[in-house]
Amino acid sequence: MPDFKAAQGAVGKLFSGALSSNRFEKWRAGLAEELAEILDRYAFGEIFWRKALGRPHTPSLSEGFEIEAWHDEWVLVGTPGGAAHWQVLQAPYFPSWWDGQSDDEYWRVSFLVPNLVQGHSIDGEHDEHTHVVPSIRRALWWTSPGGPFGVAPAGMRKLEPPAAIFVKGEGGVHLSFEVVVSLFIP
Q1: pLDDT, tens digit, for every residue of 123-138?
Q2: Could you write out the DSSP letters of every residue in 20-79?
Q3: pTM here?
Q4: DSSP reduced 3-state for 7
Q5: Smallest Cα–Cα separation from 182: which of 152, 158, 150?
Q6: Which of 8, 24, 171, 178 is 20 to 30 A (C-alpha) from 100?
Q7: What is d(CA 39, CA 7) in angstroms, rounded to the nearest whole number?
Q8: Measured distance CA(119)–CA(154) in Å, rounded
């Protein structure tokens, strides 16, 4: 039986600070083999942005975002009176996200996507791609850094990159998304 308490502690250690690629790789290399077997099926990441951009006007930072995740699953289907053909289905994952470890310069929302399946197919033609798509909730106000009379950059907030699409191999996955502002240019 997997040691879920140890896995929970390892994940807590990973998210105890800013989640860089370097930090993720060092953490991953230090995992005991039995923990790596459990945690290699997960994607770990964060959404981050400079505090100068303000924050979602919500009780918690994480309530300002949504994360969808799924993988493409190729299935052979038949049609009445027709030949069988390949069709792609979207099999959902159920990510979780929460307020991350913010610091003096950045706000952070941490997330994980569990139970990822390896996406390499035997024939190489039908690899199953995993999609992780975070978004800023619509119709949501953002507070200015200086309070109601503070100055925040004018423009539309968006995530860069807008999504991550990959074929899951062996090992855990690290993802980062940054909130940026696209300036309005008349």
Answers
A1: 666 778 899 999 999 8
A2: -HHHHHHHHHTS-HHHHHHHTT-EEEEEEEEGGG-EESSSSGGGGEEEEEEEEEEEEE--
A3: 0.85
A4: helix
A5: 158
A6: 171
A7: 7
A8: 41
